[in-house]
Specification:
The chain is mainly α and 85 residues long. The chain has one domain. It contains four helices and no strands.
Length: 85
């Protein structure tokens, strides 16, 4: 985690500005002057810096956020329908 800010500055930001020809400027225009992706990256980098300085206690959720359904229940139901021999 301690390498994340440097990775962003040296690799990601360079690619966005040079390799992708400053694509962020188009995002800011598209979103009426605010680039929500850059804002999210900044918030995540700030959070990362706090976690490095203070430790992750209280900054990490107890349960990971998921964008999928309850896959464990789905997998268990599937294994009951198709028992192995």
């Amino acid at each position: 985690m301690s390498k994340t800010p440097r990775f962003y500055e040296n690799i990601v930001r360079k690619r966005l500005n040079q390799d992708f020809e400053q694509v962020a400027r188009y995002l800011a225009v598209h979103f009426a002057g605010v680039d929500p992706y850059a804002e999210a990256i900044r918030r995540n980098l700030d959070r990362c810096a706090r976690m490095i300085a203070e430790g992750p206690v209280g900054l990490l959720p107890h349960e990971p956020v998921t964008t999928t359904r309850n896959l464990a229940a789905i997998y268990h139901a599937a294994s009951r329908r198709h028992p192995t021999d």
